[in-house]
Specification:
This protein is of the alpha+beta class. Helices cover about 45% and strands about 15% of the residues. The chain is elongated, with a radius of gyration of 17 Å.
């Protein structure tokens, strides 16, 4: 009789599988995008759904805002947002927050 193995969580296997098939950067970006959404919801509830992470290009974190009011609020809280992002799983210590204004319905890509 063979010993029973503990079940492995899919989330625990994803990083290894992503590395094996060469998509670890895409997985990291997806996790960072989700982390940014949670961060905005927590620190700026009024901006929920109005900002998306576009790219991480050290030393900058590039995000979108649906209008200039949201963009201004993000910039005013830049230090707090960057510190919180650095402390999140898959986060990074960055020095600058760049905000791109993109009205709803426009494509969300850095360039």
């Amino acid at each position: 009789m063979t010993a029973k193995r503990r079940p492995t969580r899919v989330g625990d296997m994803l990083p290894r599988i992503a590395a094996e098939i060469g998509i670890e950067d895409e997985l990291r970006l997806a996790r960072r995008m989700t982390a940014w959404q949670r961060l905005v919801e927590e620190l700026l509830p009024a901006a929920r759904g109005a900002s998306k992470l576009l790219a991480v290009e050290p030393p900058a974190l590039i995000v979108s805002a649906t209008d200039s009011v949201i963009g201004q609020e993000l910039l005013l809280r830049q230090a707090e947002l960057l510190a919180a992002f650095a402390n999140m799983p898959d986060g990074a210590h960055l020095l600058e927050l760049r905000v791109v204004i993109r009205p709803p319905g426009r494509a969300f890509s850095p360039r």
